[in-house]
Amino acid sequence: MKTDVKPVLLVAACALVDPDGRVLIAQRPEGKPLAGLWEFPGGKVEPGETPEQTVVREIEEELGLETKTACLAPLTFASHAYESFHLLMPLYVCRRFWGIAQPREGQAIKWVRPNRLRDYPMPPADDPLIPFLIDLL
Ligand SMILES: Nc1nc2c([nH]c(=O)n2[C@H]2C[C@H](O)[C@@H](COP(=O)(O)OP(=O)(O)OP(=O)(O)O)O2)c(=O)[nH]1
């Protein structure tokens, strides 16, 4: 039997939590894979980076927010088989960040209560993450 070998892609993502217990989601822009779906900020872990450094970098690039690796707490992770790769995605929670979130890459952003996340279509990998956020917040 031929086994289905896919590369594992490491992506680090973060639930930014505001003082009202809402989390930030961003809509993937046109032209990217999974365009139109809502996701947690983050991106691929680049060579030489820790996943925490990736989150700090991506939050700054995508939203203009500043945070520190020490402000990230691991919550859970996604492990999901996409067509051409297997996604492994740690999800951090961050309540300490500086600045006002502004979409820097043409994406729409929203602050949403965890129990409303299902109103926003997310990538299939994200579905199992939602109950962890509902429990936490
Ligand atoms: N950031 C993020 N990516 C997610 C989530 N759920 C999910 O399946 N993904 C997938 C979509 C992509 O295949 C991958 C993230 O890659 P990306 O293309 O956004 O990463 P990147 O910002 O480094 O992209 P680029 O520079 O190559 O354009 O992870 C999520 O909640 N947040």
Please give the radius of gyration in angstroms: 15 Å
Helix content: 10-25%
CATH architecture: Alpha-Beta Complex
CATH superfamily: Nucleoside Triphosphate Pyrophosphohydrolase
Oligomer: single chain
Name the helix and strand elements from N-terminus to C-terminus, one letter apiece. Answer: EEEEHEEEH
Overall pLDDT score: 97
Q: What spatial form do the alpha-carbon principal axes imply?
A: globular
Descriptive account of the structure:
- Its cofactor is Mg(2+).
- InterPro entries: MutT-like (IPR047127), MutY_C (IPR029119), Nudix_hydrolase (IPR020476), NUDIX_hydrolase-like_dom_sf (IPR015797), NUDIX_hydrolase_CS (IPR020084), NUDIX_hydrolase_dom (IPR000086).
- Belongs to the Nudix hydrolase family.
- The protein is an alpha+beta fold and 137 residues long.
- It contains two helices and seven strands, in the order ββββαβββα.
- The strands form two sheets. A four-stranded mixed sheet has the order 4-1-6-5, covered by helices on one side. Strands 3-2-7 form a three-stranded antiparallel sheet, with no helix packed on it.
- A hairpin with a 4-residue loop joins strand 5 and strand 6.
- The protein binds 8-OXO-2'-deoxyguanosine-5'-triphosphate (8DG).
- 8-OXO-2'-deoxyguanosine-5'-triphosphate binds next to strand 1 and strand 4.
